[in-house]
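We modelled the chain as a single entity of 95 amino acids. Its sequence is:
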Amino acid sequence: MGWFTLLLASKAGRLLLLALLIGAVLTMVYWQINRHARTKLQAEMAHEALTIEQERKRDATYLQDLSNYHLCIEYFAARGLSDTPCQPLRGVQRQ
């Protein structure tokens, strides 16, 4: 306890302790802000991943419900191509 008493006894010591205290408080504030930002980023990423997964499931369900002909048309239309190769599938039943 002797060194602490010496620090408190001198003006320079008190200033040093004050600087250390301010530094410790600023460090704690910085880590709290950093932790909050990291938590917020993780929540945003989780929400985005959930949205993407929901869209993927919705698309998969939509595509499963299509007939062979309509699935073929979706494939070629998405690529900007003619649906001519799909004509033989018209009227073919799903298996």
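As a brief sanity check on the tokenised model: Residues 11-64 form the longest helix (54 residues). The two ends are 86 Å apart (CA to CA).
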